[in-house]
Amino acid sequence: MAGAGLLRDVPQLVRLTEAVVKSTRRPVTVKTRLGWDDSTINILEVAERLQDVGIQAISIHARTRSQMYKGEANWSWIAKVKENPRMHIPVFGNGDVDSPQKALEYKNRFGVDGIMIGRASIGYPWIFREIKHFFSTGELLPPPDIHERVLAARQHLSDSLAWKGEKLGVLEMRRHYAPYFRDLPNIKPYRARLVTEMEPGVLFGILDEIEEVYSNEALLV
Q1: Helix (H, G, I), strand (E, B) or coil at 47
Q2: pLDDT of residue 217
Q3: How far apart are the C-alpha atoms of 46 and 27, rounded to whole Å?
Q4: Could you tell me the pTM of the whole model?
Q5: φ/ψ bin of 115: left (φ > 0), alpha (ψ from -120 to 50), beta (otherwise)
Q6: Where are the domains of the chain?
Q7: Architecture category of domain 3-137 in CATH
């Protein structure tokens, strides 16, 4: 009954949230989904009741737990929460926002107070600055150059090693190389080396090699 499982027991969800609110002077926020499945969408009730016990904001992923990440996120339910006259806390929307254009469209279309970015930022942390820039200017920033991509990958690998240790740090980093270097032509051989090598020093060397090769050939698209 952890996480989204609590959507099947709203009274327990409310009790737990109220206990957290009462245990701290810091603002408490909640991120949740629309409901457990299509037949039990209860986000309107959940949002009201959590607000009533003192949360300061709510973020809503516009899918049910049963959907996982399949299908299209249904933001109309988020709009219903935001339009509810009883709601006075900020409402943030989450799900399927993967570009500055879509972030602005969804913010305006559904009236939310803000956008939460999830999967679109994995391997592409620059999406946040791109969205902020687009909101303020209406212009799209160019994609990160190879130096920024390699710098981010190196820092991520360093942090992974420091946090998880050498073996697990190397293994858990493997799924991130592809998004860091997406759209680079002929990157597959380098990626294959990154996801098979276990020695951190060698991995950092491969990243340096990628930066050198793609800087010299100016192959970013």
Answers
A1: helix
A2: 65
A3: 18
A4: 0.84
A5: beta
A6: 3-137, 146-217
A7: Alpha-Beta Barrel (3.20)
